[in-house]
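JOB MANIFEST
job_type = single_chain_structure
chain_count = 1
residues = 561
[input]
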Amino acid sequence: MSGKGRAVGGLAAIVVVVFIAVYFGISATSNLGSGQPLTPEEAAKRLDKLYSKINVRTAQPVMGQIDLNPVDVAESLPDIEKFPVSVRNSTPQFVEIFSSTEKSGSGVDGWLNEVATDFNKANISVNGKPASVMIRSIASGTATDYIKSGKYVPDAFTPSNELWMEMIKAGGIKTERISESLNGNVPGIVIEKGKHDELKSKYGEMNINTVLEAISANELAMGYTDPFASSTGLNFLITALSVFDSDNLLSNQAVEGFEQFQANVPFIASTTLQMREAAESGRLNAFVLEYQTYFNEAGIRSAYEFVPFGVRHDSPLYALGDVSADKKEIMKKFAEFAAQDKYQNSASKYGFNQLADYKSEANAVDGGVITRAQKLWKDKKNAGMPIAAVFVTDVSGSMHGEPMTRLKESLIQGQKYLGAQNSIGLVSYSDDVTINLPIAKYDTNQQSLFVGAAESLTPEGNTATFDGIVVAIKMLEEEMAVNPNTKPLIFVLSDGETNRGNSLKQVQGLIEAYRIPIYTIGYNANIDALQKISSINEAANINADTDDVVYKIGQLLNVQM
C-alpha cells in the first residue's frame, strides 16, 4: 500500500474509533450480558478479525423495474380476521365494534369485553328483536387504516382518543358520535423520580411545556411511540406541535420548535415494549404511557412520576357509514349499559377513570391537519441526520418456497418507505455472504438496483446469519468513516436458524459495542433466536406470517426510516 493509502486508511480507522466512542457509546450492561464490554479499539479489531475469516463476494448489479406509485394501504392490510374477535355476538341482530386494545384485551385490559359479554346476556331488544354486540380488538392506528382505506368498515369504532376520529372524518367517512366517553384515561410522560425532582426544582412545575423545554435543552432523554400507529404517540406529536405554535401546528415556528426538540430525542419506538426495554437499559429516563398502564405497573409507579399531556383518552364511541337506525339504537343501549356504576367501578379497578379532573390541554384539531402533521413527523423525525441501513437477507435452503416469496415481497413493497434522503445496502447469506448492493444514496438508480437485487435472490445452502451481520456492520463502519453524522441500522430477514459460521456468542460483544439496532423479521421462523438478536440494542422483532408481512414491515420502516 502507498503512503497516501496508509494515511487514508489510518484516518478512517481513527474516525471509526472516535465514532464508536462518541456516537454509540460503550454500554456497561446489556440485555443478554456478554462479560466485559469491548473498548472502541477492541471492537474495531474484533470486527476486522471476524470479517477477514468470512468468504465475502460482491454480486454483479442488476437493475429492476420500480413502481413509483405511492403505497396502497388497503392492499398491504391483511384480511380483517387477522385481528381477533374478543367477544362474539349472541344474536343475528348485532353491531360490530372495533375497539382499541387497552380495553379489549385480557386481564386488566379486558374491561370492554366484560361489559360486552354481560350486555349480550342481558336480553336487550331493539325494535322487538334481540340485540348484541361483537367486539374486535385492534389498535386504533391500524383500525383507522382499515376504515379510511375502505378495506373494512365496521358498524362502530371506539378508539383511544378523538384524534383518530378526526382523521376518519377528514377521509370522507360518515361518522356519528354515540358516546363521548365509555371510560376515562389520560396519556402522559413518565419520568424517573430523581430526574423529575431535579427538573421540577429548576422549572417550578412539570407539564408538557417544561418537559419539551427540558428535552430541547438536552436535559431529558425521552422516547415516544409511532404516531402513525400509537394513540399516545399521535397525541404527543400533536401536543408538541401545539406547544410550539397553538394557532398553526404546521407553521414555520412549530416546525422549527419540533426540529430543535426532535434533535434531542434518542429513541422512537415501533412498540411500547421496545420503548420500555430501552428505558430498562438506561438509554431513556422518560417515555410516554397511558395512565391505565401506569396504574397497573407497580414497578413503574414506584420508579417514575406521571406527567399528563394532550387530549384525553376517553374511548368515544362512533357509528360509521350508513348504519341503520336499529344498529344505532343498539350502540346507544350499549353505551348506556357501559355507563352503569357497576361497570364504571370495574373500569376504575382496572386503572381507568383515575384522573377525572384532568382537562384536555390541546384544542380541537382538524383531521387533515393531523394527517399533514404525521407527514411532517415522517420528514423531520431524524432531525437532519441521514440514515444508512443494510438489509441482511437469508437465502439458505430452508428459505425455499413461501418464505423466500414473502421475503422478496417484503423487500420490494417495503422499499417504498425507505426515502431518497437515506442510504441503503443489501447483503445475502447462506454458506457465505454476498454484497448484493453496496451502500449508496437511495435515489432512483439505487432503488432500481435494490429491486433488482431482491428479485435475483435464490435460496440454497446453509445459514450463516451472524456472518451476514458482521458484513453489514463492516459496511456501516466504512460508511460512517465517510459520513460520521449518519445513523446506522440493520434489518435481518430470516427464518432464524443458524447452522454455519459465527454464533451469537462470538459476535454479541461486537453488536453491543457498535450499538447498531438490529431489527429482525422472521419467516416461518425461530422467533426466539431472532428476538435475542434484536434485544441486544433494544430493536424490534416481527413475526411476519403470510398475510400481514407487508403491512408490518411498512409500519416498521415508516418509524425507523
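[summary]
The mean pLDDT is 87.
The chain has 22 helices and 20 strands.
exit_status = 0
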